[in-house]
Write the structure tokens for this entry.
Amino acid sequence: MTELIVQQQWFLWMTLLPLGAAVAAFLAPRQAHWIGLVTALLLPLCALAAIAAATLSETQTITAGNWPTPLGIALRSDGLALVMLAVTALVGFIISCYALGYFPVRGHHQSRARYFWPLWLFLWGGCNALFISGDLFNLYVTLELVTLASVALIALEGGKAALAAALRYLFISLLGSLAYLLGVGILYGTYATVDIILLGDMLAATRLNHAAMSLMIAGLVLKSALFPLHFWLPQAHTMAPAPVSAVLSALVVKCAYVILLRLWFEVFPALDTIAIGHLLGLLGSIAIIWGSLMALRQERLKLLIAYSTVAQIGYLFLVFPLAHTETMASAWIGGVLLMMAHACGKAAMFMVAGTIHHTAGSDRISRLAGAGGPIGVLVVVFTLAAGTIIGLPPSGGFFAKWLFINAALVSGQWWYLPIILSGTLLAAAYIARVLGWAFLDVKRSSYPVIPWMMKWPPLVLSIIALLFGLIAYEPVQLALSGAPVSSPVLVEFGP
Amino acid sequence: MSDLILPAILLSSLLPGLIIFTLPEESVRLRTTLNLGGAVVKLLLVALLFFHVAKREYTELRLPLLPDMELVLRADALSLLFLILSAFLWFLTTIYAIGYLEDSPNRSRFFGFFSLCVSATTGIALAGDMVTFVIFYEALTISTYPLVIHRGTPAALHAGRIYLAYTLGGGVVLFIATVWLRAIAGPLDFSPDGVVASLDPALHGSLTIIFALLILSLGVKAALVPLHIWLPSAMIAPAPVSALLHAVAVVKAGAFGIIRVIHDIFGIGFSAELNLLFPLALMAAFTIIYGSIRALSQNDLKRRLAFSTVSQVSYILLGVAMATPLATIGGLVHLVHQGVMKITLFFCAGNLAETLGIHKIDEMDGVGRRMPWTMAAFTVAALGMIGLPPLAGFISKWYLGLGGLAAGQPWVIIVLIGSTLLNASYFLPVLHRIWFVPSRQDWPSSTLRDGRETTWALLIPPLITAMLVVMLGVLAHSVGSALYWVELIATREYGP
Amino acid sequence: MSPAIVLLLIPLLPLLTACALTIAPLRRIVLFSAPLAAVPGLVTALLPEAGAPVVIPWLVIGTHLGVDDTGRIFLLLTALLWLAAGLYAVGYTKNSPQQVRFWIFFLLCMSGNLGLTLALDMISFYVFFTLMNFAAYGLIIHDATPFALRAGRIYLWLVIIGEVLLFAALLLAAWITESMLLSDVAGGLANADAMPLILGLLLVALGIKMGVIPLHFWLPLAHPAAPLPASAVLSGAMIKAGLLGLLRLFPLGTATLPGWSATLIGLGLLMAFFGILMGLLQNQPKTLLAYSSISQIGFPLIAVGLGLAAPQQWHLLAPVVGFYALHHGLSKGALFLGVGMAGQLNTPTLMRYVTFGGLLLPALTLAGAPLTSGALAKTGLKSFLAQSPILDESLLAILLGLAAVGTTLLMGRLLILLWQQAGSSTQAITKSMWSGLSLLFAAVILVGIYPEMLTSSAPGISVKWFDALWPVAGGALLALLGRYSLRNCVTNLRVGDVDVLLEALLRRLGEIAAATKLPPLPQLPRAARWQNLPLLLLLRDTEQQLRQLSVAGVIFILLLLALLLL
Amino acid sequence: MELALIFDLILLITLIALAWLLLASSDIFRAVVLFIAFGLLLALAWVRLGAPDVALAEAAIGAGITGALLLVGLGRLGSAEHYRGTRTRLTFLQRLSAPVLIGVMIPSISLILLLELSLHASATPGQQGLVNVLLDVSGTNHGVTAVLMNFRAWDTLLEKGVLLLALISIWSLDQARPLFRQNDISPQLTGLARLLLPIMIIVAGFVLWQGDHAPGGAFQSGAILSAGILLAILVGYTLPTRRQGLSLRLLLAVGFSVFLLVAAATLLSSDYLLKYPDSLAGSLILLLELVATASIAALLAAAVVGGHPPDDLSKPVDRSSAVNGGQT
Amino acid sequence: MSPALLYTGSGIILFSIGLHALLVHRHLLRKILAANIMGSGVFMVFIAMGVHGDSGVADPVPQAMVLTGIVVSLCFTAVAIVLAVRLNKLTGCTTLAVDEESSID
């Protein structure tokens, strides 16, 4: 058994499987949802197997075709990759279940369902390929795969606003990925390799490298919607069908961020990035406040959630200024933890919003008034999931913030404390606003019937999101294996 | 086996809560079974744990959260004190709430959050280190919010906002202080000698700031003036919630946290050495008096009770801040006594509201004739609050007074006297109205078959707690009483 | 039955009876037998070997109960008086609409009062003291007249103040002596720095109960306000609770405290004359009796004062104080019940004359006429006057004699008033009422004639006939001479005295309390709601601009530029 | 050398001028045409840079297919800048943005980049040495093909995926509509098509075969083929309805599917993704190239048509207008 | 000044021109054209920087990458055009509507 697990490169299967399933779903549209569901069931198993294999074996990097690295494409099953694969598998599984209820196999939304599955599976495969990639150009290809699938999924709603949002997202992505690609080109031109590990070893602190890094970071910042370049995100995430919104907010935004993490910690550690770190930290801080304030004044649930994503992305960018030498691990793990936690929580929230939109015809927050019965369950899901957004213990968000504050304190960057705190309070405020509406005492004559699949899977996810902190130890340990950081995670003031 | 008790205690309310969320509104029977079943199971488990701990078999469960950070559940004498209180009162409050919310909407939601709230309280009791404590503390904050706004009226929502603003504000400060302390002192396991005493004297400045932050943040829930604003406004919640809120869950969590910080993080001796306790004692004393004075002018019964809570909870803090064995006994025992007394008062206030629609004190004229049992319970609890012997409140005051003398701070007695006078002056007129003023209006007579004043579910819990108020005082020196248990704790803390 | 259970039964039986009253089916039987709840106490007091001290460690924070010499005499008085008053009350409350409520408070109060005499430790003393005091409130305001309510309010205030001061005193005492036993207090306090404070607190706390001037003003309000049986116990038994407290807690026999001694003697004398003077000005028999109580309590206070001056003689003085309490309690109880009776005898029948004749007996006893217990008590007291740190012995003796004259005058006025007002009540007299009154009459006679039978601690004192007789005779003469003026003397003197001032003060305090109610925070106008805050509006507009691709492009390029340059 | 440099300079200046012109031109049709010209010139530049494979691809895909896409799109869109409703007043930031962009920021970014690049003395040898060493075991004789189909085959696989994904996206968005009105087809064009089609197929085959040892390969060949298909569609060829279902989808997906299957098989057999057995490498690459060509041709053509074939799943539409192409 | 550097520089300039146009122009097709020009600039940098020395033997790896890149950008172009057409059909616009928020509900 052990042999079987170790021998297979499960993390590679995790990319091939959804891609193959996507083709199959395209070929057999009537069976698409079954194909999707089976894949969604298999992928978490694969993820477990991949994690087991990774813990049992030493090697974390192989290359496609076993060609040596400057030539071949490195595929990595290091901690970050495995953790992201696992979270994606989990969230993807839940979203697939939800989509089964959201896109009915019969009925007038048939054609949407027909294309949802291959697109979604492509997206999933693309994400997985991205997470394991250790090659800057391959990262570009996978990123584009993810982007294209996202564009199509956003447009799947079919309305003009959705199309406009999709198109805007497409242009933004093009801009971002071309900037990134230009940076990759310059790096290749200088070092004749795009392998992350090799580059990390070779890179010198030259101005050209700095320029390349700037281009890449700018592109990725655009794609991960950091303030003030978040403008495309609320529309794109709001206009899409609910499962897609969930995927976008939970996973797609993280793709660009994962690349950024890899760049910052693995490719460019040699460069003097303190000033850039502070710039990103500043933007992140503004994003936290801005996103939260914007979320506070939204009338639509999905927009609120989307702006909450903007704020949460701000937190993710605090990693860069906070990652000083001694607080490196603290910040890095904090970022990874927040990514995971946010993925679970935000996906559940978007699913709730989608269900409300689906059943009530609109996702205006005021429609929640007097929520009871089946809607009550949704509110519960929303609340539980929101715990991680606010950063309430024992959610992952709580521990991520713990690590950030720890890093900020030890590295002497006190000014991030009020930012993190006010972000927390503002988050609580906008969540409380939603709850307030939901608790408003209004008599309702009847409650809509909500399909089974749209009610329970999000609940599971929200519970996981809320309790993520309690099970975070293993993921964190996993993420630390092969991580570019090695200082203690919980740092104490030096003597 | 004994390792599993601690998580089992947590799950005994968490799981039913989560299941209840999913139940449709109509399945009353299943929900009731789950509620009561969970409460009973928890009581049994706590009893089992009690015998373990009484035999000095401390159990501990460690669950890694992050590298170098663990979730520590541990049952020591202090945690058991709070645990028994919460488990028992939860049981009663569940019964009460079932009766109180009969036929009202959104019961699944209510009981779901109710169970979460209790799970969090249980977690606070069992927390074995500061991190775990913070986790459950914040969980409590948020799980109580839906209960506060349960009624869904604009007023309730407003109160909820205030509640959230205060408690979460406190929560984040607590969070920062804890992270800071963790960064200075390393792991923060609760231990009788504290964990920071051995640190470099150069850090004492930081420690003082951290202590202040911790006390202020925990003081929000403990309703230290001027952080108490949320408490009187939160009384808009349904009576069972107010009962639990004031007696066990939220307010006590704050007080309990302060006890933990002083005893088990900083250590009594070290806190005293840094001169941290005297300001706290002053704050507590001020709160005691201020809360009582504010209570005087309230006409809304629950508001008056709320201000009374503001005042009474600070007894606990006063006792802890005196830092003498006797005062600690007084403070800790008040944790239990105040809980039992205040929950009785809120039960009774709820009965009045639910059965007769009475909310204001000036509507209570002669209500003792219509609801004699409820009002008898109310009377006992109110007298206990004033501190009449041999009721529970007297025991606390006696030890507080002795402790104050032992600490060389006789002004405490003046505070106690002043507070007693004020307590009397806001409770006795109410009692007078209840029993001696003829009623001005005709209340609907009982619709129940046997002419009972209200349903059993509403009647029995306050009667039991009122009985308890008497027993806790009369049998204070018996084995197994709160005082007995608290004396054990104090012995552990200060040595025999 | 273990001694502990027997002793516990004394206060518990009334409590249980009260509980039984709340159960509707039992009510009729219980109401009838309720006075008997005092019987265990009476029996214990009469059996010399009963009541050995017991320790009940699990009760409250360790309870010590027992009947010592002082306690026995107080227990006897208390039990007897409550039994008699209870019997009287059975008839008195027969048709009252609030019968059950009255009895519950009556029994609670009885429990407290009986328990008080048994308490040998601070906590149980305080417990029973409190129980008695608070339950008495229910009795005082029972009639719910404005007068009763006001009396109750004032009473309650003083009770609470007394409670907290007693609490403080006990706390300090317990801290200093490191013991909860009352018997340890006296010795422990002797050398403590805080002794003056503790004694002061005690004097105020217990003085309220005893009616020590200037804390006396509730007495003339509360005693008349209460229903008759309650007045009887209030004046006869409960007022002695304060005295008992003094005996238990003051360092009597262990410390020489001339200052305190002088204070107490002075206060005692003041009370003796003040009570008489004020009493003479009353036209209500019950009010008059209340002032008489103030006056009479002055004597034991003098005795305590003497004890503080001469600790070595206290063992001789203590029985005198006890006996005085007994004598006064029984007589005053009998007078109160008799007042009720007289009021109900509306026709000048034989019964009326018999009753008035009977009432003469306690009246004379109070005045200290020879052959009565009053003479015994006063004689006992006079033999210690030499110890007084202030005033000469002979002067004191004369003053006491003058007080007796005054008392006789007062009694005279009482009887005259009663005669005048006889028949004002229409309530029927029942057998149980007669039995209650008779019991007290019998006890008064018995104590006077044969004190040793009732109490083992009665002083074996031979009464000097002349000393006892001249004040009574003088007083009687004066009364006869001045009966016209006694009949028509000023009657409209404000009943209470200090209370008027105090009430004004309290009203002011209430206003202050009301003023502490802070004005509510101003509500923000709707337009100024947070959604419309300028900042948020600005954010919204900016956000909309950010959404323009061109603006976003500038930002992107700006960022790129910044990154390149950093 | 001098002459070459001058040629390069002229070429580049023309390219930049063309780019500027086409983007600034007021007529979008003209812009598209200029863009096609730009693509062809760019192909020349690729040749100058020693990248004939890229040149071929640029000509066929960049200029050809993209041009076709743009023209079709333009036909459907119209060239005017339409706004819905009233045109919103430009804000200050917006009005400022264009001049700021042009005048300050973009030039400065370009300048910085140019400066950095010019200061950078490139001394790093590329990977051509490594590629040449490993060419023998790669199963092909042409460096670029070896990189594409073997060394970095994972990229290529994903890129095939992107292509298929793009088509699925297009299909999910819209239903196919006729490229031009049916009655526009002139007989001359039909004749030309009949003549050109076989030639195109042959050329495509040649380009594909050549890819083994010289510039060329699946993309280029597929692009040529798809041009042929488009031509066929232009003259009115339609795919029979019964072929518009699974068989069409199979054709579109076969390239990616086979690639995936090969990847799976190699992963199963060797634990390495896309590690071809030495003996089979050549034939495997040939197989992959063949199916890829077929799929690419179909995919590109379908992309230009722009929409999914009408089928029973979607709303019934006018059958006669449903035109789709694809034949090999 | 080597030809490689010349081409690299031109690539940067093309990128900049495209960037500018992408942001400034409103018509969707122009934006698509601009993105394509940008892409061409990037590809040119890729290939030109891969030309090392005067050997004239081009590095096949960047060529392969550029080939992949060209296909990817073709895919984006195709999807963008279909999206634009679809949007045009629904709204009649050939630009991205500015006031999207008002259309939301």
